[in-house]
Amino acid sequence: MKNADRAQQNEARWQAVLRRDGAMDGQFVYGVVTTGVYCRPGCASRVPRRENVRFFDSAAEAEAAGLRACKRCTPGADGERDEMAERMRALCRYLEEHADEAVTLEQLGVRAGLSPEHLQRTFKRIVGVSPKQYAEHLRMERFKSSLQQSSGNVTGAIFDAGYGSLSRLYEKVDTRLGMTPMEYRGGGAGVEISYAAEVTPIGLMMVGATDRGLCFVQFGENAEVLLGELRTQYPKALVHAMAEPAPAAFREWMAGLNEYLAGRKPDLRLPVHVRATAFQLMVWNHLQRIPAGQVESYGEVAEAIGQPRAARAVARACASNSVALAIPCHRVIRGTGEMGGYRWGTGRKRALLDLERRG
Ligand SMILES: [Zn+2]
Asked: Does the global pTM surpass 0.90?
């Protein structure tokens, strides 16, 4: 690396240290020559003086330079953690290959060299769900893909996926927000979606709806790109521009969104009809219960849906929400009180929260 590049990299790393950027963990460590200790970029200890700081690409390099690992952020533990994560990944692959068998915790424990209890905890911590939930998720995915591929009926697909009974599956899929298994077949085949675009105070908004509710509310620069998104999400649905005049229900939903964006109706409650996994539905259902103007952290949402270790999966579910406002993923922020990401930009997230707090 050229000196100029190195200087630039060091400056970027220093900025990461200043903002205690946990996302940079694993990218580098920094050593403090006056204390002889090295830390992760996200370490919560006092920020040292710039002139005393040296950067290293890895913990091993810092150790080689004679520094010792900080007790607070334990930067040397990466290897151990990675190794455990690799074992859990191997188990995930194993579960994928044996999705039609009932694999016990004991069997998995033997494969990973852990007791069943230890395995259960570790798997949940790293993967975000228990091995049993993971296996259920796999069956669900298989069920959905067999629905999409087969021209056969839904019942056949259910038995192919290893579900014992029809009702058990419907229990999981057809909740208040979700599309039925029928509607999953072929990516929304048989579902009719009408859309309309409108310029709002926070940019161009495209709204897609079935006769049951909103399935798409997104912001963007141009209508064509947004329409592309809508079609990608529902590849087999019959998608067409909203007829004029629009049905009364659609006009009502549209008016609701506009009222909300004008700050006159902070408490937006509109019917939603989306494709979603069981986990996404759990998260999105909960988001709809967070009162306007209030926020929860990803961790709090995870706690609330009974999966305290699944904060990351909650963040992913928020990021994959395709019905802005009606599923208020903007009310979830980082545990640190920082804004966190938003699919349509943090500027819009901030604007929406401001709007709700004024209202
Ligand atoms: Zn530290």
From this structure: no
